[in-house]
Amino acid sequence: MDPVGIRLIVGLGNPGPDYAPTRHNVGFWFVDALAIGQSFKAEARFHGELARLTRRGSDLRLAKPATYMNHSGRCVAAVSRYFEIPPEQILIAHDELDLAVGTVRLKQGGGHAGHNGLRDTINLLGSRDFWRLRIGIDHPGDRSLVTNYVLGRPSRDDALRIEDALRDAEGVIDDCLDGRFQLAMNRLHRAR
Predict the structure, then answer these.
(1) Cut 0.85: pTM above it
(2) Of the residues 24, 47, 94, 115, which is catalytic?
């Protein structure tokens, strides 16, 4: 039996132009990059915006929750249920404080590590078995600074490093769609 790959990619972020350039929105940056040539359509029943791509002969859904980060799971769970996409075929792209800027890692499962978007997704999806594309934004060094840090804009140099990491991640998406996750991880984790 052929491995089954990713059918839904969700970028986590906060809606609206004020949040668009912030570190917390790097998940949105990623799905926007994948959707080049396609537009996202607001879908109230999915609590977000969706785009549909045909890639490698298969339908791929891209989603951006229209809720704030703390309620991202509403979108993920609604899309998953409607299109009958199990958690193992979902990739969530999100900012990661525990990785250096310009680092991107792929993994399946795990906890939320304090990330409220992941916490809500785990709760409403009822599973931790989805894939995560962890996009490094670094840590401000003090826990009390985290909220302002993630809601702030990265420096020009950091933004360029994040963009490079997102290009590296785009380069392994076809492997993920084909279910070749180990190959994708090997390639991605060797990058930079």
Answers:
(1) yes
(2) 24
